[in-house]
Structures are given as C-alpha cells and as structure tokens.
Amino acid sequence: MRAKENLRKAVRIERAQCSEAWVAAQSTHVQKRLLALSEFSGSKAVATYLAFGAEVSTELVVADCREVGRSVFIPAYDEAFGRYRLCRMDGEVTLRAGRWGILEPVSPDWAGDEEAIDCMVVPGVAFDRDGGRLGHGGGYYDRMAVEPCVKGAWKVGLAFDFQVFDRVPRVAHDVPMDAVVTESRVLKKEGE
Fold first, then answer.
1. How many angstroms separate the CA atoms of 124 and 51, rounded?
2. C-beta separation of 131 from 170 below 8 A
3. Torsion of CA 132, 143, 71, 164, to 10 degrees
4. What is residue 39's three-state secondary structure?
5. Are the beta carbons of 153 and 179 closer than 8 angstroms?
6. Full-prediction pTM beyond 0.85?
7. How far apart are CA 99 and CA 78, in angstroms?
8. How many CB atoms lie within 10 A of CB 17?
9. Backbone conformation region of residue 156, classed left if phi is above 0, alpha if psi is from -120 to 50, else beta
10. In a structure prediction context, what are the per-residue pLDDT tens digits for the chain, which is 192 residues long?
11. Angle, to 10 degrees, between the axis of helix 20-35 and the axis of helix 59-68?
12. How many CB atoms lie within 10 A of CB 104?
C-alpha cells in the first residue's frame, strides 16, 4: 500500500504543475488517438468519465458518441448503494458537482444489468504498459468495471505520457485495462 501511495503522491505533484492550456492541448491529442481506434469506433455504448482537475478531458469522446448516436454512460454516486454506479447521459442532462466535486447528473438514470456497454473509458493516476491501473484509492472504478452492464467491455485508460510506468503496484481486485492511450501512443495488452 505504501508503494501505491508514494506513486499517487508523485504523479499528483507532477499533474498539479500542468497548465490548463497544456492539459487541454494534450487531452485533444489523447482523445483523437482514442477516437481513431477500431475498438472505440465500433462500439455502440460507451461508459466514460467527466474529467476532474488535470485529468485527460473526455469532451471530444462524449461529443463523438452523441454525434454518431452511441449511448453514453457516466459515473454518479448512488447514496442508496454507497458507491459510484453508471448512469445514462443521453440527450440533455443537467449536471451538478457531486460527492467529490466531479460533475454528475442531478437525476441519474441508472444503468441496468441488461445494458450492453461495450467500451469503458477510465481515468487513473498512473498506468503501466500491461494495462495495470492505479486509481485514487477508493476502488470505485474497479467495482464499476465488474458490473454486469460492462462485463466484456473493452476497457481503456486515458493518461498523459508522464502517468505511464513500466509497472504500477497491483492487488488481486485491481481491474486491468485492455489498452492505455496517451498523447503519443497506444499501449495494448500483449495479444491484443
């Protein structure tokens, strides 16, 4: 656990030094790389996050999904379940700052088990070349990534180059990514 916290701290310090203009410009490069991938362009329903702070933006991802008619799902905190769950973001949705200041729908339309989300776009603090992901430490995405509605979905992490390492610390319940996309490259797990 200490290794995870040390890495989180180091990456957060580096990310905090990034200007808004740099984050916006590099986010555009990352998103364009993602949009060009067949795993993404062939999807019918996408779960994605709405960027918070200096995370890679997903504005182009959401806009592309809406333009071509893909269903979009985003996380929102469900007080009844005490965790984040995916909810529909099709059409006009009123957003507000949620539990951690992250935008989420005011009135979530929760994804049911029968939803067929075939692509899940995931943020992270750090990633590795084999799809390992280090989140903020709450396990929220690891729990969402195993819900029935995303079972079998292609999971892709978005990051800046400085967030990718040879290896990030992992434990058994950490859900690996099938790919990691940065401003300069696409890293896919062996055999993909």
1. 11
2. no
3. -20
4. helix
5. no
6. yes
7. 10
8. 10
9. beta
10. 788 889 999 999 999 999 999 999 999 999 999 999 999 999 999 999 999 989 999 999 999 999 999 999 999 999 998 899 999 998 888 999 988 889 999 999 999 988 899 999 999 999 999 999 999 888 889 899 989 999 899 999 999 999 999 999 988 888 999 999 999 999 997 655
11. 40
12. 21
β-bridge mates for residue 156, sequence order: 121, 179
Asked if 189 and 130 touch (Cβ cutoff 8 Å), the reply is yes
- Looking at the structure of the chain, the number of domains it has is 1
Q: Look-up: residue for tokens 């182009």?
A: 60
Nearest alpha-carbon partner for 180 in 152, 163, 171: 163
Residue 87, token pair as written in the block: 């909810």
Which domain CATH number covers 70? Answer: 3.40.50.10420
Range of the domain at 138: 2-188
Contact 153, 119 (CB under 8 A): yes
